[in-house]
């Protein structure tokens, strides 16, 4: 039984390579893959080095600041750069459309700016070639070209009935053809994986991070499943369609619909159903909430008036200047606490809206294996939406920590009596600055990612099950002899 | 005689179910593109309207909170400039989803505020907008391929071709007629969609409309020329379908996508990050320096402000503060110019390569005409710079003399709208597509002549 399958698979493999056009296509694809790997890696390196360079510069400048009032340091703030994951050279994902640097200062949450897209003109909208793009979009096209006539040609030539008479079952035939086609793909995919691993290992100076290795393994597994699904679909279409030509046109139409049209439409509908607020609406909603809870900028604010009263009462003094700590710092810490909590709530809500927009595309994975793989691939290479949100959250946590640290220094170390109009401004020693650690983004672990990508993985698994069932049961529905008309 | 043959050809063409599928697909997607393109722009217009009322409200609130400290008021108060979408923006959304269309800035350092983005979903940005220009650039060529790949090969495969050849020596005319029928159907469809777009999006039927129309028809003619070359090779239907799809994949995905990668590698923009650092350091370091370090270059920049006496003895004055903010912008001038240069060379690179690839050419052309390209955004940034400078110069005297806010005309300030003045000329785009189409059509003609 398995012997027949391997024979068919081997035969399919050989025929594919004997065809000059296929060979040319394979070589072309192989070359573009190598190119995508090489340039992708170079871009990763230069962009990552750029960010690390500025990260170090920002740190050095922070430490070199002279003695100052801590609140000046809070406004001087920090610049955080979104680091790239070492696997992001494989799949660019949203990399080019997400900002790179964010300015972290007291009282104010800024946007992540300077995405590659903001420096680009319309050409960027055609996409960027990466290893993932070649594997997701172009390899399926190659599979279609390889396999569209795998069964239909046998039927047209009349060899199909001969095969089936010679003790070959439909199941064996379909499995054999599918495996034959997938082995052609693997013939170019496997060397590439080795190349990728080598490149990546050299990228990380041969110090391989176990989490990233697991990510890479998972990537390889998912792409293999994807190729299997696409190969099986190709063979099945070839079996069902009456002629090779019909099979080819069906497959090409599917490719266009599922890979070109559908992603845009699902996302456009998602955006339409769940509209997200513009920045001014977002900021206005936050400002409204803050003024409801207590606005430290409003001199007549009730919340701060009551804080003042209770402080005066507790310390039994009649003026805030007589308090044993810096009153201004105390109020700013309170303001930061309130505003940052409100901001984070709104930000969480906004991200939930974005998640809802993306949900339709995610769910479409059950109709479109390309979309499920795309989601999984971006997540595994940390170039997805969730990683970006995670960066924003970590940056905001850092910003809050920095602002409150400076407020604390002010409360503890700055005199409560403000100096006269012409006196020297109050300051604390620069040795305090080193207490604020550098910002380091931490990528999530594979376990967290797999948990959050459960839906996409499930859809991929559904597709795998579906095509296996189809191969197993096809014999009941397909015709061996072409219709005579 | 001739007329009735054409009628027969049309009948034959419309009897094919694939024809109707192609037509229905284009109409449906065209309408979807119009709908999504329009709603996207309408939302931006609503936001701009809302921003106008919000700005008024916030100015009033700022006056209430900080009205007795003019320097503090301008520290908080924001002025907005909106890049109002033109009529064509709904047709080609371009980069309007990536770049902010509403920039609100305070009188403080501009370089720290100018590049703030809007809130957007990066996945939506990645997958791209669904507008009518997408349908023209990506889907029309596919339908052209579907209509014409088997134009000759089908005749051969069904055995009609030898019969035809035996009956007439005008085989070239027969093929030409078939192509013409398809060309007319596609052109009529394109015109129809443009007409609907004109009405639905309220586009003025003017020179711009004619230019866009010409550009699109030329682009479609280019794809017919590509299909014509494939037909002229006398290969099988399957070969033609594969080859034409491969060309489409090359022109609409692989080539532009590779060029993007090359562009990023060739022209990285680290200056942008340097710019942020320059601005930030240029301003903040001044707090720890002698006031003259700030004020000497400030008065050199604005000699007309020297007449307002600077309170040297005070530890803090708004005069000094705004001077320091100005120093942030002045320190970033060098890196800012470098960014502009880098972006110009990027634009140059794209325009050069686009000469050889009509898909890129059409995209750039319609975005430019719609005012949704990078250049339009850079012009908008320049307008913000100018507006910011006007506001600074207008209110500096009041701040520097510690004037009363109520004596200024701040209440008259409202959201301003930026409207680009000049209509771009895109004859290079037209010319390059025409040239490529003519060359390909010529190649197809001779190749077909040779093989018939």
Automatic annotation (TrEMBL), chain A:
Protein name: ABC-2 type transport system permease protein
UniProt entry keywords in alphabetical sequence: Membrane, Transmembrane, Transmembrane helix
Organism (species): Pedobacter soli
GO cellular component: plasma membrane
GO terms, molecular function: ABC-type transporter activity
TM spans (from-to): 21-41, 129-148, 179-204, 216-240, 246-265, 454-478
From TrEMBL, chain B:
InterPro entries, per the entry: DUF3526 (IPR021913)
Top-rank taxon: Bacteria
Pfam family, one: DUF3526
Keywords: Membrane, Transmembrane, Transmembrane helix
Coiled-coil annotated residue ranges, if any: none
Transmembrane segments: 12-36, 132-152, 179-203, 209-231, 243-263, 425-448
Presence of the UniProt keyword Plastid in the record: no
Full protein name: ABC-2 type transport system permease protein
Species lineage: Bacteria, Pseudomonadati, Bacteroidota, Sphingobacteriia, Sphingobacteriales
